[in-house]
Design a protein that fits this description.
With 314 residues, the protein is an alpha/beta fold. It is 50% helix and 13% strand.
């Protein structure tokens, strides 16, 4: 998608054997089969060569590996670079948002200009050039506008936001709610249950975002409601798939072992629940998903406990 917009795009691939295959076939047969990479995209497993003198560095690594990767890259990077994070997760233990992890890691060397990119995006649909809209957020308005101009094109539209906290919380916690959506589908529940889950899931995501300094209105946009609806209803959603398979009786370990890509919600649920406790925010769906994923609670029991909660105003 970005290749036509720049003189050169370099793609870092962690696995040397996959990088070599991609250079030969111009296709990522493991993670995105069926799409040809443009000739102008350079593919390398050499991290230093990939990031050398980059004007923009876009990182989409799983949240558990983000800090380690930036620690490894730090000596190779320069302050003139704009950093864009498209990772949708929270760091377990520190409870940091991804843009904070990047800024903290690079702070001993230079103050990094960091943006976050989020919104309703399945990779296959972006790659086949379906119309897609996303948000780029940063406290540095000029940086967000530069990325908006650089990345936008005929089938990818970027909106700017000054609320990285809201955008990142929305992008991370929607994965937890999507696991619940998968449970509803796997149990054979209908549209009523799914609509209720999405709506109440959005409410608790908005509460957490506000407690962390975000604007609740952000969650009514692409990085909140838009991404939540996509991930809860789309069959390409890895997090939804986890919920479906749990409801069908498979173990979490078995499900994760069978997946080639990371379902971020499985790990994010730890940080989301810890943040809810830290800020005194009620997040019942998140709590039940944690119990389902990591405490042995059955899918039907999790649903029952959500429905049996004390009655209250909306």
């Amino acid at each position: 998608m970005l290749a036509p917009r720049f003189d050169g795009v370099r793609l870092w691939v962690r696995e040397p054997d996959l990088a070599a295959e991609m250079r030969e076939t111009r296709e990522n047969r493991v993670f995105l089969p069926g799409f040809q990479l443009p000739p102008s995209v350079g593919i390398s497993s050499d991290l230093s060569a990939a990031v050398d003198s980059a004007d923009i560095l876009l990182s989409v690594v799983p949240s558990a590996y983000l800090r380690g990767l930036y620690e490894q890259m730090a000596p190779m990077l320069r302050p003139e670079t704009l950093f864009v994070s498209a990772t949708k997760g929270l760091e377990r233990g520190t409870l940091r948002r991804m843009s904070d992890v990047i800024a903290e890691t690079l702070a001993p060397r230079f103050p990094a200009r960091v943006c976050v990119l989020s919104g309703p995006t399945f990779a296959r649909e972006v790659a086949r050039e379906d119309p897609t809209a996303v948000v780029v957020a940063s406290s540095d308005r000029e940086a967000a506008q530069l990325i908006q101009t650089a990345f936008s094109g005929p089938t990818l539209r970027l909106y700017t936001s000054a609320d990285p906290a809201g955008v990142e919380v929305g992008g991370a916690v929607k994965n937890v709610v999507a696991i619940g959506a998968g449970v509803c589908h796997g149990l054979g529940l209908g549209h009523n249950a799914l609509a209720a889950l999405i709506t109440r899931g959005l409410a608790e995501i908005s509460r957490l975002a506000a407690a962390m300094g975000g604007d609740p209105r952000t969650l009514a946009g692409l990085a909140g409601l838009g991404d939540l609806v996509l991930t809860c209803t789309g069959e390409l959603s890895r997090n939804r798939t986890v919920g479906v398979e749990l409801a069908r009786g498979r173990s979490l370990d078995e499900i994760v072992a069978s997946m080639r890509m990371v379902a971020e919600g499985v790990e994010t649920v730890h940080a989301a629940l810890d943040l809810a406790r830290k800020y005194g925010v009620e997040m019942p769906i998140t709590a039940q998903m944690h119990a389902l994923l990591h405490e042995g609670r059955s899918p039907r029991e999790a649903i029952r406990l959500l429905m049996d909660r004390s009655l209250k105003d909306e």
